[in-house]
Each structure stands twice: as C-alpha cells, then as structure tokens.
Amino acid sequence: MKGEPSFFGQILVAIAIITMAGLTGFITGQKLQISNSISASGQVESISNNESTLPDSNSESVSIDKVNTKKVIVGDIEMAYKTFGRGEPIILISGSGNVMDVWPSHFLNELAKSHKVTIFDNRGVGNSTEGTKPFSVRQFANDTVGLMNALGIQKADVLGFSMGSFVAQQLVITYPEKINRLVLYGSSCGGHEGIPQNPKVISILTDFVNNRTKDASAFLEVTFPLQWIKENPNFLESIPKTSETILSSTVKKQFEINEHWLSTYWSGICDLLQKVTKPSLIITGIEDEAVPSGNSLILVDKIPGSWLVQIEGAGHGLMYQYPKTFTEIVETFLNVSETIR
Questions:
Q1: What are the pLDDT digits (tens) for 120-148?
Q2: Which secondary structure element, helix H or strand E, spans residue 22, and what is its range?
Q3: Predicted structure pTM score
Q4: CATH number of the domain encompassing residue 300
Q5: Which range marks the domain in which residue 237 is found?
Q6: C-alpha to C-alpha distance for 212 and 297, rounded to whole angstroms
Q7: How far apart are the first and last CA of the chain?
Q8: CB burial of residue 163 (10 Å; 0-12, 13-18, 19+)
Q9: Which residues contact 69 (CB under 8 A, 6 or more apart)?
Q10: Residues pairing with 22 in the sheet
C-alpha cells in the first residue's frame, strides 16, 4: 500500500467548491443576514459576490500546516488532530479522501477568532491509524464523539463536509447531547428518499478512485463547474498544500461508503432527521454533481426550522472557490442562531 500524493488529496477534496455567478439564500424558519441583505422565512434573497479572484492560500496570516499535530487514543485507533483559536468549540469533519490540512486557510483563520476549532484525520487517513473496526458512517461518528470525549469537549458546534456531513447527521441522531449547532455542507440524507448521483458521475469517480484513468480533468469537472474552471485555470493553486498522505485502500473504502449512502438501495436516515432540534444550516452549490444539490431541499424539509443556502453557479467545491463568502455564511448562521437559542 502506498500513500497518494498530496495533489490527489487536494483534488479528492471534491466535496467543497462553489462557482458563484450569484448567491441565492433560501431560509426556512429563521432569518439570515449577509452583507446587509436579510432574507425572511420563505423568501429568496440574492446576495452579490465580490470575490472576483481566488485568494492565495499561502498568503493567509496563519498556515494550518504549521499548527502542531497532536495524537490521542480513541477506541482502537490513534487519532491525529489540531486545535486552535478561542471561544466556543467547533468540530470540522472532513470529506472523503481529505486530510485535515485542506480546509481553506481563510475559513479557519476567521473561525478561530471566535471559536476553538478542532480538525482531525478520520481513521486510516493522514496521521490517524486505521484500527481494526470496519469503516462506516456510524463508526466515524463514534470516532468523532470519542475524540470529543478525549479532549474534554462536552458539546460543540459541528460542521460536516460531504462524507463528513453524513457523519454529522449520524452524530446529531445518535449523540444529540453532544451537538450545539449543525452545519451540513454538500450533503444528503441518503437512501431511497435521496437524489442519487448521475450514472456518468458514478462512472467517472469509480474509474478515478480505482486508478483506471490518470486523466483528472473529468473528475475535476464533477467537482467544479466547467465554466468556472475555464475562468480560473490556476485554481488548484488556491487549495492548501499538505504533506499528509492517504492510502489507496483507504480512499476506496471511503468511496464505497459514499456511494452506498447516496444510493437508493437502503432506507437512508431522512425520516430520522425530523427529530432534530438543533439549529441547523444546509449549504449547497446548485451545480453540485458529486452530491446532487436537490438533496438540500429534502434536508431542509426534514430538519425542523433549518436554514438553507443555495449557491447559484456553484459546484461541490464551494469553500475553495469562494472561501470568504462561505465563511460569511457559516459565521452569520452561528452568530444569529446564538442569539435566538
């Protein structure tokens, strides 16, 4: 087994990018205010995007790659993590194929001004060991709670991205007492009520993950809207660099978990979300093909009082394309929901 090069980890970050010709916010049950625009319950608010160019990830004030990595025993694994910032705790759960260092620097820096941020490598990824237990969304949720307990975190805000958002849903269902507020980005509640991936997308991802093709262009077009790629030919330079690696076998296991979750061959957890009482935000790019954006409408319908923000012209990689806008959306939700709890 060998570790994948960091470039693969950057590309497989596929669950986070937002091409934005404009940003449309749909809010259910609460109010959202961004850049002095307020969208009341049931209304649609267009929010202008001022990010005309991609920021240089290496020019940010703090490089996450320079924050010390710590390790702690969680069940059958040694879990690698980083903590930084001050304030209420927030846990960020990475997507499939992602190491913890690939979160956008701008997002982490801004979040750390008012939160104690914890990021970590899922089992078998980066500097975390694989352990002996089978990979599953439920196991990843157990690992996350185990990390919180090991660090003495009684309760936290939780943000999950792609596969990480599946884990976050399992967390709020199984361990609601550990969740303060919930953010689901690029998400689906899966199963027969969910909207599955296009067969062509499944084929592209399957070929790429199983090394049946060396051409990353098709994979990138699943992650980012084609027009946005054409307008931003150097966009990979904006994704944080990392020395962490991922075993090919781990990538395949995570991919299988994703594909099962998004398939219609199981019951999913959509109906279980009706019992969620935590303030919740769902974020999606309207052009997301990795996790079809229509799933966000199902999520907001299932989770009582949840918020929904859809980014017009955005794909799965929203947070890399428009890190400032993504950050502003998340911070607005956290700040406003704090005042109404």
A1: 999 999 999 999 999 999 999 999 999 99
A2: strand 22-27
A3: 0.83
A4: 3.40.50.1820
A5: 3-31+60-340
A6: 34
A7: 48
A8: buried
A9: 80, 81, 82, 127
A10: 312
